[in-house]
Amino acid sequence: MDSAVLLRSAHATIGRFPALAGVDLELAPGELVVLEGPNGAGKTSVLRACAGLLPLTGGEGTVLGYDLRRDLVAVRPLVGYLGHAPALYDELTVSENVRFAVRAAGAASSAVPDVLARVGLSGRLARTPAGRLSAGQRRRAALASVLVRRPALWLLDEPHAAFDAEGRRLLSTVMCEARDGGSGVLVASHEPAEVLPLADRVVTMVGGRAQGSRRGGRRRVVPGGVHVA
Amino acid sequence: MWRDALLVVGKDLRIEARSRVVVNQVAPFAVLVLLLFAFALGPDRSPMAHAAPGLFWVAVLFCALLAVQRSFAVESGEGTRDGLRLSGLDPAGIFLGKTAAVTVQLLLLEVLLTVGVVLLFGNGVRSVGALVLTSVLGTAGLAAVGTLYGALSSGLRVRETLLPLLLLPVAAPVLLAGTRAWQAALGIGTSTSGNPWTSVLVVFAAVYLALGCVIYGPLLEAM
User: Fold this and answer.
1) Please, which residues bridge with residue A213 across strands?
2) A104 and B4: CB-CB below 8 Å?
3) Domain A5-89+154-228: which topology?
4) What is the pLDDT of residue B159?
5) What residues contact residue B93 under an 8 Å CB cut-off, 6+ apart?
């Protein structure tokens, strides 16, 4: 089976700063891999490179079969990227933001109400301008924009940030469902308690390189978001 | 491309309808510009009426700067720039959508400005059709070139000051041709036909619309 992500000695720069200094990383479909490491280790840069937002300057990279050196733009609509900042227009309502994301991707927007209900933003909240939401609610709206598109590759950067306890359980459930549905899930996180139990593998990043890999503590998910060993 | 353009124009106009920046800030600014020109030219209506077409297009040009800056300000919010790049929208569609949204906003402002010109400067209108045609063509060209240079400058820290420097010289043909075509439409001076100047506006709009469709993708990457 082709890898969802395959990086071989991948290099990338942000300005003159070397963000990736020879990363080797492989992620199979249906696998959940956590990137850990100190600030500035290159975790976000790996995710942005895989999303087609950071061009590779050296090495090789393929995402969902597309060459990151040649087909950078083609990768973008296929991945679900949840970055530090939610991609929301403050003046548009939650529902309008999610519908715009879905229609832009060429997908049907009929699933939007169900997805908004699932992330806890149905009813009045769905009609609220995104600029009036709390940080956690904005995060839920951004998650809905990704969830409704059912991407083949999930790229999540500090996904648990700003979520309350119920939101964290929801997010963990969504991540596991995506993995169990055959999508690749790549997560950068500083919250090992949240993500390590879900991970198939944990990759340690240091200085723009993947320094090592170990098994994660993957567990089975049952409905309701409870993790059972 | 057209589907994407419709999606973007709908989004941008909806954002403007909610934020009311054009209504609450740009429209008063446009009226203020006309009023200041009227004060500067004094109470004699003859020079005012003669200068009215040029003043109209200068006011439109200033408003275009504000509208274009606003159009890109909404894309510079938290994560929205990445969201637009990840959306899968055709860059040409994004360009046409943003251009159309700026065009619609400017045309609404121009209705207000035209009323102001007639009331303040005492101009009559010889050909309403020519006036409307000139306004639509000139505005489409201004919006296209503005959207192009707006994208070019939006990724830079000095974008607020750089955009006027880039846009104003390039938009000079619209100012010139729009003024001459408006003079003909208002029956000012010896000019009886605005056709050659209208042709300039057609060519300007066509060139920048085509150019924008081709190079907006690379510009979006540099944003």
Assistant:
1) A203
2) yes
3) Rossmann fold (3.40.50)
4) 67
5) B1, B2, B3, B4, B5, B7, B8
Count Cβ–Cβ pairs < 8 Å, chain A vs chain B: 69
pLDDT averaged per 10 residues, chain B (length 223): 90 90 86 84 75 88 90 79 85 94 94 85 78 92 93 73 85 90 79 75 94 89 73
- Helices B2-19, A94-104: crossing angle, 10 deg rounding: 160
Domain extents in chain A = 5-89+154-228
SS3 A66: strand
Q: Does B19 touch chain A (CB under 8 A)?
A: yes
Report the gap between the CA of B157 and the closest CA in chain A (Å). Answer: 15
DSSP H helices in chain A: 43-50, 72-75, 94-104, 112-118, 135-147, 165-180, 192-195
User: Quick one: CA torsion of A24, A30, A32, A33, rounded to 10 degrees?
Assistant: -10
Domain of B189 in residue numbering reads as 2-222
Among B9, B14, B70, B86, the strongest candidate for a mutation testing the A interface, having the largest count of A CBs within 10 A, is: B86
The ipTM (two decimal places) reads 0.80
Distance CA(A37)–CA(A30), nearest Å, equals 23
Nearest-Cα distance to chain B for A127, in Å, is 13
CB atoms within 10 A of CB A54: 21
pLDDT in tens, A14-64: 888 888 888 898 898 988 999 988 888 888 999 999 999 889 998 999 999
Give how far B223 is from chain A: nearest CA, Å. 11
Q: Measured between alpha carbons, how far is B19 from B21 in angstroms, rounded to an integer?
A: 5
What residues in B contact A107, CB-CB < 8 Å? none
How many folded domains does chain B comprise? 1
Of B77, B85, B88, the CB nearest to A105: B88
